[in-house]
Specification:
The protein has 477 residues and is an alpha/beta fold. The chain has 14 helices and 22 strands. The strands form seven sheets. The protein has a seven-stranded mixed beta sheet with strand order 5-13-12-11-10-8-9, with helices on both faces. A four-stranded antiparallel beta sheet has the order 16-17-20-19, with helices on one face. A three-stranded antiparallel beta sheet has the order 1-21-22. The protein is globular and about 70 Å long.
Length: 477
Amino acid sequence: MTTATVSPNAAVQPIQAEAAAPFDARRAVAGRPLAAVTGAEIQAPLISGGHVRYANLDYGASAPALSVVSAYLNEILPFYASVHRGAGYASQISTSVYENARSIVRDFVGGRPDDSVIFTRNTTDSLNLLAGCLPATDGRPDGDVLYLDIEHHANLLPWQGVPHRSIVAADTIAGTIESVRDELEQGGVSLLAVTGASNVTGEILPIRALAALAHEHGARIVVDAAQLAPHRRVNIAADGVDYLAFSGHKLYAPFGTGVLVGRADWLDAGTPHLAGGGAVKEARLDGVSWATGPARHEGGSPNVLGAATLARATQVIADLDQEQWHAHESAIRSFLVEGLQNIDGVTVHQIFKDTNPDTDTIGVVNFSVEGYDAGLVAAYLSAEHGVGLRDGRFCAHPLLKRLGLPSGSLRASFGVGSRLEDAERLLAGIDSLRRNGLGWDYVVDAGRWVPANDTRTYPHWAPNTPGTAGAAPCTDD
């Protein structure tokens, strides 16, 4: 068993004044959440005793539901019923809510009137769906899918089952655009697949420029907007994006629902994503006539409440004052980045040298602490400071290797429900770690670091365990 042992009596020192100085200057725009989220005041038990408000800096994995969305869920839940084939009162209401969600989501992303809106399980599901709809002639694909080495696995692995090419992004955004141009000029590319914002570093790619490049060379573009959509408005018609995928659980909506929005011709001719009821015009014992439109890919009973709450979340986000929204996020991010850079032994990571931190980043900060495994730091922050963030390789293994972080790093991510004090608490914890070391003993259990002799209790309805039995099979992820 792997252990990490220190004196549990190490004194906790406050964060240095120079790192804390910007706090008051940014308090006006980020001292409070921009929007109310469910669970914002839950109390996390500390390993040393007592409780503290949970500082959720793991929005990039799953964001808390907006309070407005939670209230909406409670309002429509009594009417939940089957859709499309029910004549009853509740079924008619549920069908109306479900289908109206398509129009709401289409409007949110600036979709074209004839764009298809298909509800899926998540972004990964959406991109796998699209991979089954790539055009072919006489059984031969009409071209390759081109993607970068910086992609999340959702926008990497689906394309490996079809003709594909990958290229290494340059160390600048400008250089990366030129690399994409050079590859497109070789011909034979049918689809360019790119992330809207890196789930590892939060850096934004220039979607409009990449879309123009793809179209110039006869290709289409799909954007993985799982991280971008919760932080920036996207207009696919104005930006020239052919397909856009994102997830409700990252956009402040509960349940596992994703969406794919884009041009209908490929989708109507593609292989149905789920063979089953609702996806067909007529089924026979030895064959089937498939439907077109969204129904073609939505076989089985859909996640009605997931689609409804996703749509409601997009309405709330759309109503935000964009200037205030971006200022709130920028204040937290800049405070956190500056504070981390002022702590000895801490490195903040990014992909591109020419990223503008004021305009080309979202609420994601990636960093590492010298001398400490990322998983151990995450366990320490949770147990001793009530701070939750992500550690590992973020389902972006090629990128982490490229950044020189093969065993992983740490990611703090935040959004409209965050406040400056969350970042301050993280900085205080990292500063104390560098000055004093760990304040508790830690062991590796089922591939994850956990406090030794943990006697903290959990809600009466939850298993009273640290949850390590559910660790990912990739122990560094």
